[in-house]
Prior knowledge:
The chain is α/β, with parallel strands linked by helices. Helix content is 29%, strand content 24%. It has two domains: 2-52 and 374-423, Urease, subunit C, domain 1 (Roll), CATH 2.30.40; 55-362, TIM Barrel (Alpha-Beta Barrel), CATH 3.20.20. Strands 1, 2, 3, 4, 5, 16, 17 and 18 form an eight-stranded mixed sheet that branches. An eight-stranded parallel sheet has the order 6-7-8-9-10-13-14-15, sandwiched between helices. Helix 1 packs across helix 2 (103-116), helix 2 (103-116) packs parallel to helix 3 (139-145) and helix 7 (208-225) packs parallel to helix 8 (237-249). The longest helix is centred in the middle third of the chain and has 18 residues, at 208-225.
Amino acid sequence: MKWLVSSGRIIDPASGRDEKADLLIDGENIAALGPGITPPRGAKVIDGKGFLVLPGFIDMHCHLREPGFEYKETIASGTAAAVKGGITSVMCMANTEPVNDCAAVTSYILERAAEAGLARVYPIGAVSRGLKGEVLSEMGELADAGCVAVSDDGNPVRGGEILRRAIRYASAFGLLVIDHAEDLEITGEGVMHEGSVSTLLGLEGIPAAAEVAGIARDLALIREFGGRIHIAHVSTRAGVDLIRKAREEGLRVTAETCPHFFSLTHEAVIGYNTNSKVKPPLRSAEDVEAVVSGLADGTIDVIATDHAPHHRDEKEVEFDLAAFGISGFETGLSLTLELVRKGHLGLMEAVGKWTSNPARIAGLPGGSLAGGRPADIILVDQEREWTVDPARFLSRGKNTPFAGMKVHGEVVATFVGGRMVYHRDGG
């Protein structure tokens, strides 16, 4: 099928293009980009005037929950939420049940994604069998089955020697190692950021040092033994500083943060709001400022959602007992555009954090509007104001601290492989 998106504002960080132009889709790929393209016979035309035309977003860090936790999310419901939020490719973590530590589970995830036919799904395999941090998974098998990275995510690899071997082993198969950098002994029984708010509420705190110690350990391994690593969901000022210095040294480290870490502080927990309970936790205003600065100067390469949907019964409990996590697919784009509205990031830079940068780091085919590339494209109404209403989420997870917030920027249409998989008017 052929589509012509006419007169939109093209933003393509991979090529640096920012111009009003037409974009032609022919089958699964982008056929042409430029002004004054004549619609081919049989092509459907979309008026892009007043809209941004962007590469589809790539989410390097999410949880689709299937297999094993379908009451929280399924691959079908998760990818429906993703394309509504402008995300055309997702990298899903391995903490399913059973754990994605073998080819059988990877294949199941890919089969379910193909059945859903919405966003592209790229599984992340486990670093260690069962996420136990004891024995490395068969990474060659995982790579052959379709995994693009490995991570033990919420079960950060405690043993430095296991992680050192994992980095070397993964590199042999072209797999990226993504680490949830956290020293669990420092975290202890903490449930939110350790600071004035945790003291006020009488809740056990998680010191910033838990993340900082984890990052320092990871960087020490790369410095001593080589290889590369990607640091997940950076949330602390000192963590950003460590990564900045490591990059100045030339270490092969990349990093991501999440919209909640540049949009909220630990004050969002006041009132014991369990929808603000996330790990790492929401931090101080100083940390938020540092995360924004890290995005602006390139220390933090990527914005990812860490989409972590939960059933309401896991959130509507005492704060200490509530599950960690935020449902993020449907708010990530708008929260990022708030950084642009406030002048913290240019539009080109902001879009690159979701497109060309993750494509480069993870070695994925999307993230560009160049001719011949996959037609993974989104149209965005940048000025459209809307109010976050979790009842309207397509995700099964309604757990968001942004409920009731007014934001700007809404996806008009999403294409994956040349197929329109979402339109805000239902077309």
